[in-house]
Amino acid sequence: MNYIDEIFSRADIQQIRAFLLHGVDEINLDPRPYKERIEAAHRAVTVRLRRDYPDEEDFEEITGYIYDYAAAIENVYMEIGLQVGVILAAQAAQNLKRALTVD
Question: CA-based Rg of the chain, rounded to a whole angstrom?
Answer without folding.
Answer: 21
